[in-house]
Amino acid sequence: MNSRDEHSQMVLSIAAVERDTGIGKDTLRVWERRYRFPEPGRDANGERIYPLAQVEKLRVIKRLMDQGYRPGRIVAQSIEALQHLSRGEALLQPVHSVSAMHEREDLQAYIAQLQQHETDDMRRELLSTLTQNGLQHFVMNVVAPLTGMVGNAWARGDLAVHEEHLYTECVTSLMRQAIMAIPKPERNEGPRVLLTTFPQEAHGLGLLMVESLLTLQGCRCVSLGTQTPVRDIAQAAIAHEVDVVALSFSVNMNTNQVLEGLAALNLLLPPSVQVWVGGQAPALRRRSIDRVLVLHDLNSITQAVHDWRRLKLHHHD
Predict the structure, then answer these.
(1) Residue by residue, what is the 3-state secondary structure of 227-269?
(2) Is 252:227 a contact under the CB 8 Å cutoff?
(3) What percent of the chain has pLDDT over 70?
(4) pLDDT at 88 over 80
(5) CA end-to-end span of the chain
(6) 54 burial type by CB count under 10 A (0-12 exposed, 13-18 middle, 19+ buried)
(7) How many CB atoms lie within 10 A of CB 169?
């Protein structure tokens, strides 16, 4: 049995499926009754367990739902049909320039290395790019677009979950090493930033990209990693005397979880602490949120830091 076959035999608990897909336990149970999918087995204790193939299909369903598809239209469809829909969505995305097309073709080599399990080669080439061009270029022009390509390749069925995870682990380790190598600023110009995600958000790559760019801007960063309860975020912000709490939300984050979590966090934080948020969660694009600055892309970080410092100088004057 090869590694792909062994991986396909894995099963996940309903809690793990909720965490991995962003689809709630109650919703999974409703779909099971209404659409006869997913079709979990049972473990020795009678608890639901889900084969990895079903989890991968659920992740495609969640991506399509975030693009506007209704569950009743897609849940009962085959994975092949869902991947076809996903390909159709990808074809509708505009190409902004010839250079963007060329860059995508250039980055496609990394996708091929993942598919062929040439992760050592991929790591060496990514490290070479990081060393030659610096961390900011690496994050903005390699990791950010490549992460989107990896996600799309997974949604089309061109990458397995474990290959996506290998990619994440590889670029995470490279960025962490690069962050550690950045010289600390001689003067504390701020802001001091606490970085984390809400408990429902397990994806930390976007958070690490933000930490990289903030550190390059001379900010002092305190990272709690992912999945921190809201009350603990507030306690850490107070304990570390931070100026900003920065949160990342992937496309899988439920709108109510985002809005309710941010409202609760605002009540717990001192008025002097700003909240910066970014990512692909639909909630961030639908409405303005009190006391929350939405960073619409990575380019927004430089301006946010500049505006914070200018406001700080104004208050001192």
Answers:
(1) CCCHHHHHHHHHHCCCCEEEEEECCCCCHHHHHHHHHHHHHHC
(2) no
(3) 88
(4) no
(5) 70
(6) buried
(7) 13
Amino acid making up residue 142: V
Phi, psi of 24 (to 5 degrees): -65, 155
Q: Which of 272, 277, 317, 271 is nearest to 296 (CA)?
A: 277
Q: Are 110 and 125 in contact (CB under 8 A)?
A: yes
Q: Taking a C-beta distance cutoff of 8 angstroms, is the pair 314, 283 a contact?
A: no
Strands of 11-13's sheet, edge to edge? 11-13, 48-51, 41-42
Asked if the 98-181 domain carries CATH number 3.40.50.720, the reply is no
Rounded CA-CA distance 266/244 in Å is 12
pLDDT digits (tens, 9 = 90+) for 104-127: 678 889 999 999 999 999 999 999
Half-sphere exposure of 10 (CA within 13 A, CB side): 16
d(CA 62, CA 90): 15
Q: Which CATH number fits domain 3-91: 3.90.1150.10, 1.10.1040.10, 1.20.120.50, 1.10.1660.10?
A: 1.10.1660.10
- Specify the amino acid at residue 32: E
